[in-house]
Amino acid sequence: MEDTSMLQGSQGLFAQLSFTIYPNGLSEDRLRQIEHDIADANGTIIPFKAPKGRIEKLEEINYIVSETADFPDYYRALDLMMHVVKPAWVDASLQAMKPKNPRTYSPDPALFMNDVVICCGDIPTGDKEAIEGGVLAMGGQIAPSLSKQVTHLIALDLSDHRCQLAISKRLQLVIVLPHWFDDCLKVGRRISERPYTLPDPEILIAEAGANPIPPTRTSQQIRDATTPDPFNNPVPPAPAAHLEAPRAIKAFDSKSVKLGDDLGISSKLRGIIAGMIKAGGGNVTSSIETADMYVCNYRDGADYVKASQARKDVGNLGWLYYLVTHGVWTNPMQRMMHYPRPRDGIPGFEKYKVSISSYTGEARVYLENLVKASGAEFTKTFKQDNTHLIAAHKNSEKCEAATEWSVNIVNHLWLEDSYAKCREMPLTENRYTYFPPRTNLGEVLGQTEVDRDATEKIFFPKLPKPAKTVKAAMQTNGVPASSLVTRVTKPRASSPPAEKAKRTKSTGNLQTPVAPRHLDGKENQTPGSRGAKDRALSRLHNAATDIAEFEKEMKRKGGVIHGGRRRTEDEVEDRTKAKGGRDSVSSKRSIDAVDEDEDTEDELAEVPAKNKRAKKDKLTPIKFRMLVSKVERWTNNSEKESKDKARLRELGLFISDDFKKVDLVCAPHPVRTKKFIAAMACAPTLVSTTYLDYALKNNKLPPAEKHLLEARDFEQANNFRLSEALERAKQNKHRLLKGWTIFCTEKVAGGFDTYKDIIEANGGKCSQWRGRTTTVTASKRTLNSSDQEVSQNQTADEGDVLYLISDADKKDFNNWTKFRELAKKHDMIPRIVKTEWLLSVAMAQYVHWDPKWELSEEVVKAAK
């Protein structure tokens, strides 16, 4: 007899709810099935009418069922707080006999875990809670036990009883290390599981270096979307009718299209395009008021502003060709190369020279065009005067050369995010300089969409301003006034000018990542409750001990780093000495270039080692690593900077921005910069700029003691001697704040990351304080009397004081109250301090206290 209990239980489940189903990506049978299931549960189906591709009475809909977020009403639906769910939501709700959480079935591309159902094996509790919280925050689902719905089983090895059960039951799932999730969260994308898959995960195999990192596979997101100017491509033929999805949103059906004057196309080509649009059921118009679509090259001009403000479809010729090819509507903002370009590129990018590494085919074409559209100079050959190298992974000779030349090595996410927001993103954001081991990031190329909010604020704001105000606003926002044609804009009072990202040296060290900072109000932010995200961040922070153990294991001899254990600079020195001063990376690169031909790197890899060594000059062993701060020698002269650094490297002096490993710090005088203060933990020798002057003039390194930094005024003002601080730093060995957890408000002057780096350089941990007492923990410090060297510099540490670094701002009063509650909850003494406290402790290299550093409501009110 047929079991009808579930059917009876689901009847009426969707009563008084209305649904519309978008057909794109769905077969006719699947459409009928969804409609039937909703109707059986007493739901109301409001038919989707394809001609315009929009719902006339959107406000009357409760749920939109769609496989994709790529439909005209998507963002309008979000503004109306409407649920947009995948068809699987209907199935899951009926099976559970209750509506499931719509967010875990959202087609939002920012929720990159939305197709993932995880089950955790026998892993540490902290890791498990962090992974589960992060998966939920990114749109995935959690299964407490194994089932057929599980897609990923998280385990440390196959001896886990759940792994054995999955194997015996032949479940269709992937068994991966927890590090896969960590790396996905670190870059904000779902990366390949291959290097993390048990039983033999590549990231743990010492010999993995013998296996090449997989080549870039063309991402679906950039297919037919690699160039904004497809002038060299013939107009594509119309798609065959049988290839179109049933009731699909036709690209041109009943729509009017206006072709912009800035397209620069011939009358013959314009006629051909008009014919294609008419063949698709549309027409070409000369009026922007009657147009449904506007096609142009640049984000300016009266028609662009009018069309954008009216929420019409605005795209470029590449987008138009895509519509002709596929015959189905797509959002032009979904793909970078489908939306008009900023005429003058991204503010600040005009001074950059960018090259790329390890990308081929369409991926290479896409990145080349994106670099040019951003306003930077693209170079096919990688030279020492390049400012950035965009790499899919760091296992290449170009990356080795970039490291030696102190050229920024970034992944493509930095370029895509900068272009999406039309402002330069800071390289201090870890996700832009992180390369997951054994992974080709080209697999996630093109998944970033144009930021509609940022684009609106800069290029077509709702409220026009007078011309004078417009020009001032353009300058305020870092947009060249010269780019203003007929574009109108308004000042962003709350947005500071884009900060110039400092050129930092990217390291190749493998790290097990923790939750990225960008989850807090930045990229890939998702709607809904942030509680799961905050808990995930806190738990990942608390799991730092386990993560550190993994890092320690990965750094042992034989570990794997980017396709093989890359030699550290110390090992290069040792090997160089053993082999008479020769190595694979030579100072000859100071004058030679690394070719940028698509197959160059592969060809180089096949050259016999003997022949390669014959082409290399001797590389002087590194004698000192120097960090420079506030040195004006190279201000606005990158060419001179590159040449001088190459000469110094030949003398054995390596200029580095890595403040965690440095022998010399060079500055005109003691300065309160992040690099200078954090580097104090290394107990470096402090030298003045005359050291560099002498070295470059005489072509040899002088004795450091003859060029020591003059610090008399600084020492008098701060009541301690730098020489004594450096002696204490030698004793501390980066452990001054070991065992400390120091909290810091999110918008503190100087930026949270500044104080985080200083605290971590001294062995402590820094957590961002958002006033949520339930998502963080605090514990008393154990005073380590056994370590005499360090403890003598911690005599002022009571052990039970909890510190919060903040600004003297009334807006933080509520945060202070919550912080005191946290301290009381853990039987600790709250102490809210100015940034001056940390800077003084880190500079002097001993824990001390001055009441003038303490903040309170009374102090702030009195100051006002």
UniProtKB/TrEMBL annotation:
This is BRCT domain-containing protein. GO terms for cellular component: Cul8-RING ubiquitin ligase complex; nucleus. Residues 593-605 have a biased composition (Acidic residues). Residues 9-107, 107-198, 349-432 form the BRCT domain. SUPFAM superfamilies: BRCT domain. Residues 566-592 have a biased composition (Basic and acidic residues). PANTHER family: REGULATOR OF TY1 TRANSPOSITION PROTEIN 107. SMART domains: BRCT. Residues 481-614 are annotated as: Disordered. GO terms for biological process: DNA double-strand break attachment to nuclear envelope; double-strand break repair.
